[in-house]
Design brief:
The chain is an alpha+beta fold and 277 residues long. It has eight helices and ten strands. Pfam families: PADRE.
């Protein structure tokens, strides 16, 4: 029996530890009067009223909520329905969607919760964050230890108290207190969401830009074509003028003679007319 327990503990990651099997009448120890929601970054949100799961999922569309006692090795994690009520005195996990798509194992659980190590709760995880229980059917069930939740709450409270003290040093009036809350506290509580356009809107704007660019190019081509046609028309007009002037000179040969020859020819024509008379 001792060897089996030793081998089981050797297979469990450091953030998990095995405990004695619970008795049939052993209730789950939890704080009454509040709902605790544990996020992937190690934060614990406390609600002093029953909460519908859909209220939290609207802020986290790619996540699901599950009960803290629903981690069973070898089975998929059952998620709460959107309309299901989160009851007072219970703890819940807010996890990414991929958690609920595969069978749970020690390896996937430890690797998934490794993101905690970059936060201030990494030391707490190494101090027995999860309990491993053996169910009456022989399956291993993982629960979040109450000690772990209390230590997280204490850590958050110390951080909040430090922020209040620092704020008291800066804010010396009610107006400054209000401005500080709007700039610092409210910005922490608000979830940042990128302003993204829909695919259809982006495609419509892209098509409009392409059409404007095409219209400008077509307008430039039309102007260039019109200028070329005007130049050709001017050349044709000049050529016709030259041809007309040349034809006029050939029909009246006097214009082709020098001025002196023109006078002599006029006198000759007068003499010939007189003789005929």
């Amino acid at each position: 029996m001792g060897i089996n327990r030793f081998l089981t503990q050797r297979m469990i990651p450091g953030c998990l530890y095995a405990v004695d099997p619970p008795t049939a009448s052993r209730p789950r120890k939890s704080a009454t009067g509040c709902v605790k929601l544990i996020t992937m970054d190690g934060q614990v949100k406390v609600f002093h009223r029953p909460v519908i799961a859909s209220e939290l999922l609207t802020e986290h569309p790619n996540h699901r909520i599950c009960h803290s006692d629903s981690f069973t090795i070898g089975q998929k994690i059952p998620a709460l329905q959107e309309g299901e009520l989160m009851k007072l005195g219970n703890s819940y996990f807010l996890l990414p969607l991929h958690f609920f798509q595969s069978v749970l194992s020690f390896v996937t659980l430890a690797s998934s919760f490794s993101s905690f190590q970059s936060s201030s709760t990494s030391a707490l995880l190494m101090q027995r964050a999860f309990e491993v229980h053996k169910t009456p059917s022989g399956k291993l069930q993982i629960r979040v230890s109450d000690e772990f939740l209390e230590k997280i709450r204490e850590t958050q409270k110390r951080v909040d108290d430090a922020g209040v003290v620092g704020r008291a040093r800066v804010c010396t009036s009610a107006a400054l207190e209000k401005d500080y809350r709007q700039l610092v506290v409210d910005s922490r509580e608000r979830q940042w969401k990128p302003k993204l356009e829909t695919i259809k809107e982006a495609e419509r704007k892209r098509d409009a830009r392409r059409q404007r660019k095409k219209d400008r190019q077509d307008h430039k081509k039309e102007e260039k074509k019109q200028k070329l046609m005007n130049k050709r028309q001017e050349k044709k007009i000049k050529k016709l003028k030259k041809e007309v002037s040349a034809d006029g000179k050939h029909q009246n040969p006097q214009h082709a003679l020098p001025p002196h020859d023109r006078k002599v020819k006029k006198e000759d024509t007068r003499k010939t007319k007189g003789k005929k008379i």
